[in-house]
Design brief:
This protein has three helices and seven strands. With 133 residues, the protein is an alpha+beta fold. Strand 3 and strand 4 form a beta hairpin. The model has no long low-confidence stretch (mean pLDDT 96).
């Protein structure tokens, strides 16, 4: 059975390896999305983020801090989280699609990138980074 579907989601852990969550690809409003389920909370991300983040990390050429933050909090400049909500990224803003729950891009997308063989992610207690493979 193909991995990354609703019937067979990716089983992932946050970068510090402290929490489990799952993700799968789906369609919503004719858009490719990544559905992220953390406990009972469901987040949606534009699936284009995988290609775009990989390309940005390749161009960056080095480790980049993840910098995860909730939508209501500012993201630390120069982090994956800041890039995931920046007007200068390829979608011109948030990759998170669910108003009020658009943040945490730097927490949940990097482990999926690692699972897909697109990136290397550190797994320290704090201040984790990632880089393209």
């Amino acid at each position: 059975m193909e991995k990354g579907t609703k019937a067979n989601p990716w089983q992932l852990k946050t970068p510090p390896l402290t929490s489990d969550y799952e993700m799968y690809r789906d369609q919503k409003d004719d858009k490719d999305v990544i559905v992220c389920t953390v406990g009972k909370t469901v987040l949606l991300y534009d699936a284009q983020c995988l290609t775009d983040l990989h390309a940005m990390l390749k161009a960056h050429g080095d480790w980049m801090e993840l910098g995860s933050a909730d939508e209501q909090k500012p993201a630390k400049e120069g982090t994956v989280e800041a890039w995931g909500r920046s007007e200068s990224n390829p979608v011109g803003g948030w990759y998170g699609l669910k108003k009020g729950l658009r943040g945490r891009f730097g927490m949940y997308i990097p482990p999926l990138m690692e699972e897909l063989g697109l990136a290397e992610v550190e797994h320290n207690a704090k201040n984790n980074r990632m880089r393209a493979i």
